[in-house]
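Table S5 (text form). Sequence records supplied for joint modeling of the two-component complex.
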Amino acid sequence: MKDLWTKTLERIGRSPTRIEATSSVMAIVCGLLFGLALMLIVNPLEAFPGFFTVITGPFQEGLRSLGNMFYFGVPIILTGLSVAFAFKTGLFNIGATGQLTMGALTAVYIGVNWGFLGPFHWVVAVLGAMLAGALWGAIPGLLKAFRNVHEVVTSIMLNYVAMYFNTMIIMNFLYDFQASRTAHPLPSARLPVLFLQNIFPGSRINIGIFIAVFFVAITHILLKKTTFGYELKATGFSRDASRYAGMNEKRNIVLAMVIAGAISGVAGAMMYLIPGRHLPYETILITEGFTGIAIALLGLSAPIGVMLAGLFYGALHQGGTYLQLYDFRPEIIDIIIAVIIYFSALSLFLQKIVKTFIDKRTKASMGLSEEVETR
Amino acid sequence: MEIVVNMQGITKEFPGVIANDKVDFDLRQGEIHALLGENGAGKSTLMSVLFGLFHPDEGSISIRGEEVRINSPRDATKLGIGMVHQHFKLVHNFTVAQNIILGEEDTKNGLLTMEKSIDKIRKLSELYKLKVDPYAKIEDISVGQQQRVEILKMLYREADILILDEPTAVLTPQEIDELIKILKSLAQEGKSIILITHKLKEIKMAADRCTVLRLGKKIGTVNVKKTTNEELAEMMVGREISFTIDKKKAEAGEVVLKVERLCVHSDRSKRDVVKEMGFEVRKGEILCIAGIEGNGQTELVEALTGLRPISGGSVVLNGKDITHASIRERSLAGMAHVPEDRQRHGLVLDYPLEYNLILQQYFAPPFQKKGFLQFAPIRSYAEKLIDAFDIRTGKGAIALARNMSGGNQQKAIIAREMSRHTDLLIAVQPTRGLDVGAIEYIHDLLVSQRDEGKAVLLISLDLYEVMSLSDRIVVIYEGENVGEFDPASVTERELGLYMSGSKRREAS
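The corresponding C-alpha cell record, covering 883 residues in total, follows.
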C-alpha cells in the first residue's frame, strides 16, 4: 500500500503536467470542502446529505440528470475553451463574456427574424453567432497586435459595450411587449435534440454537447498537430522569438483572438437557442464568460482538460438544482465554484506545495534505498 | 601573511547537481586570488556562499580566524566582504554619490546630509585612484566608470575582502589595464581581492595565486608566476586546449552581403544609432565587426536581419535588394542569424529542443504536410543535429530549451542556423558567457563554415575572438564605420584606440 502511494507520487512528480493536474484537483477539493463548511454553518443538520447530493448530482435521477450535466456543461466548456485557446497563444481573453453576448444577440436576432431559412435556420443562427463573436474578439486582437494595447483592458471594456449594445438592440428590435421580455427564437431556430432525447429522457440535452466536443477536438488538433498551432504557441510563449523566426506574430495574435471570440460566440448561441430561455435585456454581464476563465485555469488551458473541467462544472450545477430540497439556496454552488476559482488562481502556489510534498516523500524513500545500496 | 578567508570543505547541492563538492579555499591578506573555472564549475556558487546568498550544506567559513555563519549579504557586509556582480547593481538615474551611499545614508534629523558622504567618497577615490565625478549620473558615465562606482561602493562600506565577478567582460583593453592597476593598488593598501574569471591572460597579469575549479571540485591552487597559461587551461578544462585557431588563409569569393550607407533610426534615443554604415562580406571569409558594447552593433544586426526598420541606405543579399524585405523573406533568401540574446530571440524556451531546431523551417517539407506537423521527420532531424553538434540535454530531443544549459542552448541555435544551408551567417557574440571548451568548439565551427564557402559576419566584443577568427575587421564606433583592418597587421591595442573613438580613419 505504502509502496503504491510513493510510486504514484513519483509518477506525478516526474511530469509537470501531472503536478499541475494534481493542483487542479486540489483546488476542486478545497472548493468543495469550503462549500461543505459553509453548508455546515447555514444548516448543520442537512449539510452532509445536501453535500452528498451535490457531488452525486449527475446520478440523482439516472440518465436525466446525467443529460442535464452535459446541458449545463456546454456553454462553460465553450467559454473555457475560448479563454484557454487565447491563453495558449499568450493572450488573456477576459472578454469571453462580451463575445458571448454578441454571439447570443446575433443568434437570437436571426432566430426571431429569419424564419424563411427553414431547416437551415438554427445552423445559420449558430454561424451568425460565431461570426459576431469572432468580430468582437478581433477588436482587442487588432489593438494588441498593432498598437500594443493590452487585451485585458480592451476586452473588459468591450464586455460593457456588448452589454449595453445588447440592451439597446433588444429594446428596439427584439422586445416582446406582451411577455415583457426578449422575444423567443422561432422553433426552427432551436438547437436540435436529435436522438439524445431517447438516451437521456426528460433531460434538456441537445446537439450542443456534440458542438462543444467538436470544438474541443478541433482546437486540440489545431494546437497539437498543425503548423498553425506551432506558430500560435510559439507566439504565445515568446513574441520576440517568433518574430526572429520570421513568423507573422501580429497576424497570429489577431487570428488567435478571432478564433477565441468565435468559440465564445458559439457559446452564446448554445445558451439561448433553446426553449424556455430568454436573452436578458437588462444591463447585466452574462457570467458564463467569466466562469470560462476559471474553467480554463482548472483545465490547465488544454482543450481536453477544459472539457473535463466544464463537465465537472455541469455536474456541480446539476447537483445544485437539488439543494432546495435540503433547504439550501442553489447559490451555494456558485460560491463553491467561486472558491474553486480562487484556489485555481492560486494554482502556482498549489503546484509548489504538491511539488515540495512529492519531493520530500520520494526523496525520503529514495534516500533510504540509496543508503541500503551503499552499505 | 594572515589568512583572512578560510573556507573548508564547502559542499552545496542543488537538485540534480553538486555545485560545490568539498571545496577548500583560502585568501591571504593583500593578495589577488583568481578563481578560475568553466561555466558551471561552481565559482559563482562558492562566492555566493561566501557572500551569504547561499547556505552551504556542509563546510565551515572562517573570517580572520574566527568561524562565522553568513546568512545574508548584510552579514557579509558587516564582516567586511564586498562583491561586484557581473551585472552592475546601480540605479541609473541616480548620481554616483547617491548610488554609493544607497543603504548607508548619513542623516541628520531624518534628512539626508550628503556633504560628509561626498567628502568620504572624494577621499577614497583619491586614495585608490578611482577617478569619478560624484555628481555625475550613472547613465551618463562609461561602463568602466560604473565599475569604479561599484568598487567605491564596497570601499565606502569599509570592505577589505573584495569579490569581483567577471569584472573585465565589459571593458576595452585600455580599461582592463586601468582596472588591473587599480586592483593592484588596492591589494598594496592591504585589501584582499578575489577575482572570478575565465580569462587566463588577466590572471597572468593581475593575480598572485589562482584556484581552479572544475565540475564543482577544487582541482588545485597554484602560484600564478610559476604556471603557464597552458597549464592553467588544462587544469580548468581537464584536457589540452589549443589557443591558436587552426585556419587557412581565406579564399574570399564573390560578394554575398553588400551594405551601403545604412542608417538606422532609434525612436527611443531619437537619433540615428547606425550612421551611413557600409561594408561587404564575401564568400569564404569572416568579416568581424568589432566595437565596444552599445555602439550600434545591436541595431545594425537587427536592421540587417529585419527585426528593425532601416531608415536609409540599402542592403543587398546575393544580388537581391532586401532593404525592406520581411524577416522570413531574408531567411529564405539565404540569411542565417545567431542572435545576440539567445534566450529572448534565439529560442522559444518553453518549446522542446526538437521544435526549436525547426524554428524557421516548420512550414517547409518534410516537416510540414498539408498544414500538419510531421513528427517523425522533426524527431529524426533533431536527433541528427544533436549528434552532429554534440548538444547535451537530459532528455534528448524532447528536453525543454529552458532546462538546457547556456552552452547547449547556444549549440542548439548554432546547429540550427548552420544546418540551414544559407550563404550568409550572421553571428552575434556567439561565444558570450560560454566556457573555454564550448568557445573552442564554436570557433572551429565558424571557421569550417567559412571554409565551406559561406560568408560569415561576426559581431564580437571580445578582442581575442576578433583577432583570432576574422579575415577582415571593421571597427564600429557610435554607429559609424571608423576603420577597416587586416588582423595580421594591426594590434589589439591599436584596435582599442579606434573602438574607444580616440582614432578614426575613413572607410576604404
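Note: Residues 347-374 of chain A form the longest helix (28 residues).
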